[in-house]
Amino acid sequence: MKLPSPCISICQIDPVSQNCMGCYRTRQEIARWPAMTADEQQLLLQQLKQRRAEKTGIQARSSKRRRQQG
Fold first, then answer.
1. What span, in angstroms and rounded, lies between the C-alpha atoms of 55 and 48?
2. Span 41-59, mean pLDDT?
């Protein structure tokens, strides 16, 4: 099963890193996304979390959320 695109509609390429400032993908990754396998997409999503953390200092949160008691 293919994954949804990580695009968040902030489509501007950073002139230094050459990554999109919204989703942190390169132009090549953006163009290739529809043709990637689900495994390739998942691997890229992990790489994007790392790029975001390196650029912003914001660590990726766990995909599992705790339910609040009450």
1. 10
2. 93
Domain regions of the chain by residue span: 1-55
Rounded Cα–Cα distance for residues 53 and 55 (Å): 6
pLDDT digits (tens, 9 = 90+) for 22-38: 999 999 999 999 999 99
Answer whether 48's CB lies under 8 Å from 6's CB: yes
Distance CA(61)–CA(23), nearest Å, equals 16
pTM for the full model? 0.79
Q: What is the total residue count of the chain? A: 70
- Give one word for 27, left, alpha or beta, with left for phi > 0 and alpha for psi -120 to 50: alpha
Question: Is 23 in contact with 48 (CB distance < 8 Å)?
Answer: yes
Evaluate whether 19 touches 25 at the Cβ level (below 8 Å).
yes
